Amino acid sequence: MKSPRRAAPLPVGFFERSAEIVARELVGTLIASTADGRWTLGRIVETEAYLGYDDPASHGYRHRRHAQNAALYGPAASWYVYRSYGMHWCANLVCLGEGSGSAVLLRAVEPLDGLDVMRHRRSVELVESLCSGPGRLCQALGITRSELDGRLMRGSPVEVMAAADWSGVIEATPRIGISKAADWPLRFTAAGSRFVSRRTVTSKLRAVAREHPPG
DNA sequence: GCGCCGATTGGCT
DNA sequence: GCCAATCGGCGCC
User: Fold this and answer.
1) A18-28 confidence digits (pLDDT tens)
2) CATH number of the domain located at residue range(s) A12-208 in this protein
3) Which residues 37 to 96 of A reach strand C, CB within 7 A?
4) What tens digit of pLDDT does each residue of A183-210 get?
5) Domain spans, chain A
6) A50 class by beta-carbon count within 10 Å (0-12 exposed, 13-18 middle, 19+ buried)
7) CB A101 under 7 Å to nucleic chain B
8) CA neighbor of A94 nearest in space, from A173, A148, A147
């Protein structure tokens, strides 16, 4: 797999649908990066949908708009990259269209090629730790805001392609690490994959408890 | 204007 | 299991 054939990236129309459907159908697809001129390839195994103005967990909730999230309101099939906790990058693909504020967060990738590049970027050896988390996969694939934010996916340094040969089972579960609408089942994973992000259930339970206090 | 908190991660107890 | 790192937006005084 040293000299990759460039498969066609997913068409814009794929993303002109609700983030929930796009998030589900992105599981199993391939993601290829040429950031820094170095080739890396993986399979998306975990995503989350953020629905937009009526989703309390979405950066586009109530049409919120500021300098850092302008790309979230861009056209379908464009990248929205934001900084999380002041230190990590997280990558989203915009859904529906201009102004929708809805997107799919990429949460975990199964590394397929360019593992040494990923290991070098991540300073980690274990393959299960290279791309299992939204911040981790951005680091492994060389994704930064300046690299992708606001750019159309097609023709950008990071492209997502259909994988005709993949036929796994896709599970829907509650989203991770959020405190609002924490029980909406908008997280999609490849069932049984050892490359999905690991997270204890306790933080989730705490988040739910915060939203629905006892008494 | 000030303080809190998050679509996270990694290191330490 | 717990907590610090780190920073911009937002709620609140």
Assistant:
1) 999 999 999 99
2) 3.10.300.10
3) 64, 66-68, 83, 85-87
4) 999 999 999 999 999 765 544 455 455 4
5) 12-208
6) buried
7) no
8) A148
